[in-house]
Write a structure and sequence with these properties.
alpha/beta, binds zinc ion, two-stranded parallel sheet, TIM Barrel, 8-stranded parallel β-barrel, single chain, 14% strand, 2 domains, binds 3-methyl-2-oxobutanoic acid, 15 helices
Length: 389
């Protein structure tokens, strides 16, 4: 079986930026877009141009500076939205208009007070209109996660005929279970006429903590694109985290899925987004959290010092983290103390270590974490170390 290259569609600057308090200005969006382009994402969704003059200007600025990626702008199935997106994307080397409409019965009834046939007509009209501006049209079936599969297939078939090149199947509310989302993608792959002309895309939200699992399941079942954000930032509980899906595909070669991402940039770009958005990344966040490569219990530290692979499945350098951290706390063991003491210049004999370790524990019980300065203090005040050196 050959390896499938999964296109990475980054929506940090659109779905991610919708988070309250995370708004970015034009300069910030441009700096992040430049880094996303270097990171190797295939598509950058730069914003929702009709939403505000500022966002229009940002999408235009991003379109001008991005060298390699496709630049995409969001719109509803509304002519003015689509026309405005096309204008904002005018300078993009590879422009894509992302248009769509809600397809679940709940959206059709409560948002649009409409019916299934009328929604298909609006979807087709939107895609045709968008196609009059650019070739590359992505259609989103909002709330596809809760849309009946047979009807969803009809929508997909109609928009492909109208010229859609990518079909976005969003689990907008983060409701699907991984096997259900995977089965939805497979159903579309097997039942939509003309599906070979389009790419299926996963766009998952994290309301039940399943966004990453659902996206991977989607790719396993035939999707060719994953939509995601740096640090998983996004509406409510967030979107699929880019760093997670990318590293899952890298660490599991048996999946036969890969991406164009330069993973050594992941940590740096995570920090860049977090600094610019003013939103702090939880320390236990997979791949990019402060504790993702930190070991603090004695048993784990002993293992990692003997062989990193005992407790680490990713080489930190692969994601741009210089090295694993051995954190000294009152739960640490002798191996960790000896290792950290050696790093700051103290080579301890077994006898010295036994004694110094007792001093260390007394100190560690008073403090959450022991740093290099503390190690110096412990060593200098330790009678046995001074006696034997
Ligand atoms: O979650 C969603 O359905 C979306 C669409 C607008 C693509 O973000
Ligand atoms: Zn979304």
């Amino acid at each position: 079986m050959s390896t499938t290259n999964i296109q990475i569609f980054d929506t940090t600057l659109r779905d991610g930026e919708q988070v309250p308090g995370c708004k970015l200005n034009k300069a910030q969006k441009t700096v992040i877009a430049e880094q996303l382009d270097l990171l190797g994402v295939d598509i950058i969704e730069a914003g929702f141009p009709v939403s505000s003059p500022g966002d229009f200007a940002s999408v235009e600025a991003v379109s001008k500076i991005v060298k390699n990626a496709t630049v995409c702008g969001l719109s509803r199935s509304v002519e003015n939205d689509i026309k405005t997106a096309a204008e904002a994307l005018k300078y993009a080397k590879m422009p894509r208009i992302h248009t769509g409409i809600g397809t679940s019965d709940s959206h059709i009834k409560f948002k649009f007070n409409s019916n299934r046939d009328a929604i298909i007509e609006r979807a087709v009209a939107a895609v045709r209109y968008a196609k009059s501006f650019v070739e590359d049209i992505e259609f989103y079936a909002e709330d596809a996660g809760r849309t009946d599969n047979e009807y969803l297939a009809k929508v997909c078939e109609a928009v492909i005929k109208a010229g859609a090149t990518v079909l976005n199947i969003p689990d907008t509310t983060g409701y699907c279970l991984p096997h259900e989302y995977g089965a939805k993608i497979r159903y579309l792959k097997e039942n939509v006429k003309g599906i070979k002309k389009a790419t299926l895309s996963c766009h998952c939200h994290n309301d039940l903590g399943l966004a990453t699992a659902n996206s991977i399941e989607g790719a396993i079942n035939g999707a060719g694109q994953i939509e995601c954000t740096i640090n998983g930032i996004g509406e409510r509980a967030g979107n699929t985290a880019l760093e997670e899906v990318v590293m899952i595909m890298k660490q599991h070669p048996n999946l036969k899925l890969d991406t164009n991402i330069n993973t050594s940039m992941l940590y740096g770009i995570s920090q860049l987004v977090s600094d610019n958005m003013g939103i702090y990344t939880q320390p236990n966040k997979a791949i990019v959290g402060a504790n993702a490569f930190a070991h603090s219990s004695g048993i784990h530290q002993d293992g990692v010092i003997k062989n990193r692979g005992t407790y680490e499945i990713i080489d930190p350098k692969d994601v741009g983290v210089t090295e694993s951290a051995i954190v000294l706390t009152a739960r640490s063991g002798r191996a960790a103390l000896a290792y950290r003491a050696k790093n700051v210049g103290y080579e301890l004999t077994k006898l010295q270590l036994d004694v110094v370790y007792k001093d260390f524990l007394k100190f560690a019980d008073l403090k959450k974490e022991i740093n290099d300065n503390d190690i110096h203090k412990i060593m200098e005040s330790s009678a046995i170390y001074n006696e034997l050196r």
